[in-house]
Design a protein that fits this description.
Length: 241
C-alpha cells in the first residue's frame, strides 16, 4: 500500500508538499552550510575553509580529468553546486524524516522522488548540450550528436540521447528510493507484533544500523556518479571523445 501524500493544485497542475518541502530544505542546508564555511576567508585557512576547499578541489578534480581547461573552468562551479545539492538530498531522508498524524511524510530525501531526479537530469543535460553548441557551433553540434561516427547511425544516436536522460535520472532515483524503502521496512519490523517481537527487534536493530550506514555510503557514491556522468556527456557532446 502506498504512503499517503499531501498535494495541492495550482494552475491546473498537481504539486506534492513532500517534494516541495524536502527540496527547499535541501537547498537551505546547502546555502547555509556554504555561507558558514566561507565566512572570513583568509590566506591561512581555518578548519571550515579547509572543508569547503577540499570539497571544491574534489569536484574540480572530477571535471579536470574529463574536460578541456576552458570547459573545466566553466563547469567547475556548477559541478560543485550539483554535487553538494545531490549528496545533501541523498542523505537527508536517512537522517531526517518528519511524519505527522495524517501519516504523510513531509521530509525525506528529495532524490527519492523521480520528478526531482528527472529535473536534475534535464538541467545537467541542458548544460551539456549548451556547452556542446558553444564548443562546436550549432552545425557541428548537430553533426557530432546525431551523425557521428556514421550518418546511418542516426536512429541509434537518438536512442542514446534518450538513454542518457534515463540513465542519469533513474539510477539516482532507484538507489535512493530503494535504500529508504528497505530502511522503512526494517524499522516497521521492529514493531512487529507477536511472541517473537523482542527477539526480532534484537535482530532487526543492528540490520537497520548497518543498512543505514551502507545507504549513506551509497548516497555519496551516487552524487559522485551523477557529476561524473554529467561531465562525460559534456565531453561527448563537445566532441572531446
Amino acid at each position: 500500500m502506498d504512503d499517503p501524500t499531501a498535494t495541492f493544485k495550482f494552475l491546473g497542475l498537481t504539486f506534492d508538499w513532500t517534494t516541495i518541502i524536502s527540496t527547499l530544505l535541501a537547498m537551505a542546508i546547502v546555502i547555509i552550510v556554504s555561507i558558514v564555511l566561507t565566512r572570513k576567508l583568509s590566506v591561512k585557512p581555518n578548519k571550515r575553509q579547509n572543508a569547503i576547499e577540499y570539497l571544491l578541489d574534489f569536484t574540480n578534480g572530477i571535471v579536470n580529468g574529463q574536460l578541456t581547461k576552458k570547459q573545466a573552468r566553466q563547469f567547475g562551479l556548477f559541478a560543485f553546486t550539483l554535487f553538494f545539492f545531490v549528496i545533501v538530498s541523498n542523505e537527508m531522508g536517512l537522517l531526517i524524516q518528519f511524519k505527522l498524524g495524517d501519516g504523510v511524510t513531509y521530509i525525506k530525501s528529495p532524490t527519492a522522488d523521480p520528478i526531482v531526479t528527472m529535473t536534475l537530469a534535464i538541467m545537467s543535460l541542458m548544460v551539456a548540450h549548451g556547452m556542446g553548441v558553444q564548443e562546436l557551433g550549432f552545425k557541428g553540434y548537430i553533426k557530432n550528436m546525431f551523425f557521428t561516427p556514421y550518418s546511418w547511425m542516426l536512429p541509434l544516436n537518438i536512442i542514446e540521447q534518450l538513454a542518457n536522460f534515463l540513465t542519469l535520472s533513474l539510477r539516482l532515483f532507484g538507489n535512493i528510493f530503494a535504500g529508504e524503502m528497505l530502511l522503512t521496512l526494517v524499522a516497521n519490523s521492529l514493531a512487529w507484533p507477536g511472541h517473537f517481537n523482542g527477539l526480532w527487534s534484537v535482530l532487526a536493530l543492528p540490520i537497520e544500523m548497518v543498512w543505514q550506514g551502507f545507504s549513506l555510503f551509497i548516497g555519496g557514491i551516487q552524487a559522485y556518479v551523477f557529476v561524473i556522468l554529467t561531465g562525460v556527456f559534456i565531453s561527448q557532446l563537445s566532441g572531446n571523445e
